[in-house]
Amino acid sequence: MNWQSILQAVAADVAPVVGGGRVANYIPALARVPMQQFGIALATVDGEQAAAGDSHTPFSIQSVSKVLGLTLGLQALGPALWDRIGREPSGNPFNSLVQLEREEGKPRNPFINAGALCVADRLLSAHEDPTKAFNDLGCSLLGEVLAFDAEVERSERTSGFRNAALANFIKSFGQIDNDIDAVLGLYYRQCSIVSHCAGLARAFGYLANGGVQPETGQRIVSREQARRINSLMLTCGTYDAAGEFAFKVGLPCKSGVGGAIVAVVPGRMVLCAWSPGLDETGNSVAARLAMELFVSRTGLSVF
Ligand code: GLU
Questions:
Q1: Is 39 in a helix, a strand, or coil?
Q2: Whose CA is closest to 68, among 107, 29, 111?
Q3: Atom of ligand 1 nearest to the CA of 94
Q4: How many angstroms is it from 240 CA to the middle of ligand 1?
Q5: Residue 155 known to be catalytic
Q6: What is the pTM of this model?
Q7: Residue 149, in any domain of the structure
């Protein structure tokens, strides 16, 4: 297939909705990002790359970093990671507190904020310098150190009342070991990682390639772990819209409130689309439509 012309056609088709939706205004630094932007890129496991639109414009990856956190968590702890984190869709907004009360501080999955905070706690226990662990992973995936946006990190720290509530609440059940400020600090740092569509499409190649990074041949996670990360992306990766994504896209996806959506086509490629305007479920309006159009044009889906 001619990936380049497919991506260009998808970019042209989504153009009317680019600028629609709302930016994530609960994080002031994200609220300032211009909405009239759209990028899309893919990288195949065989080394082909294609891109269209603002495919190299940097953005805050936000919750897409939860996939990196989960990867590091599985590398460090293996199945013991699941002692404190579930694997079920939450059916609640990504920053919801209510379920935690009923379920005694065990978050439903690692892709809601509560779950990512628990993963951050486990990483703090497992690594002397967990930021370095993220950086080392970034080097293995992209061949370069990760960029962090200090302003976004600060902005989240000063406006993250809900995340602070979640972390304190979970700790009250004894499910967080480390100091709350350290857990929140690591979480905000990972959310502030900056990348672009072309970078993320390359970075997550290991998830399309049985756990091995296609460009380097380096094993990042086991084949089984890669399969499980993909399963969780499919069932829990797109907030409260995961059912709709499975229905309309049928690929493991992870979205972030910075407007990115990463999609894995197992055995084939990783695709990343980005546009800052979000719908009411927190998913990028244009990136979401781009995923649907890409799948209907190519027929690439796990179903
Ligand atoms: N840093 C964001 C928050 O904690 C991440 C949310 C997201 O991208 O889902 O609210």
A1: strand
A2: 111
A3: 9
A4: 14
A5: no
A6: 0.97
A7: yes
